[in-house]
Design a protein that fits this description.
The chain has 92 residues and is mainly alpha-helical. 42% of the residues lie in helices and 0% in strands. The chain is flat and about 50 Å long. The two termini are 43 Å apart.
């Protein structure tokens, strides 16, 4: 197995799992990509926690849905100014 010291590239993905295997034959059972690795119990707990927090924020904000936000009359002039300044920038 190649390590990062051998090829100069970090072959470990997020949370230290091996994401990319270089210069090795690919087996059918090899977990080459992060999407191929099964989720652990910790991963499932974390995703359920995040989903719960997002649901709570939605439920707290839902009663305020009919309340209109104040208008912003400066949006279009700001966008037009940015586009104008962008056209003045030299292309390389």
């Amino acid at each position: 197995m190649l390590h990062e010291a051998h090829c100069g590239v970090d072959l470990r993905g997020w949370m230290g799992r091996t994401v990319l295997k270089a210069a090795q034959p690919q087996d059918d059972d090899a977990r080459t990509w992060l999407s191929d690795t099964p989720a652990t119990a910790h991963d499932r707990r974390r995703s359920l926690t995040i989903m719960g927090v997002m649901l709570a924020v939605f439920l707290i904000a839902a009663p305020f849905a009919p309340v209109p936000l104040p208008g912003n009359n400066a949006f279009i002039p700001i966008v037009q100014t940015v586009l104008f300044l962008e056209t003045l920038s030299p292309r390389s």
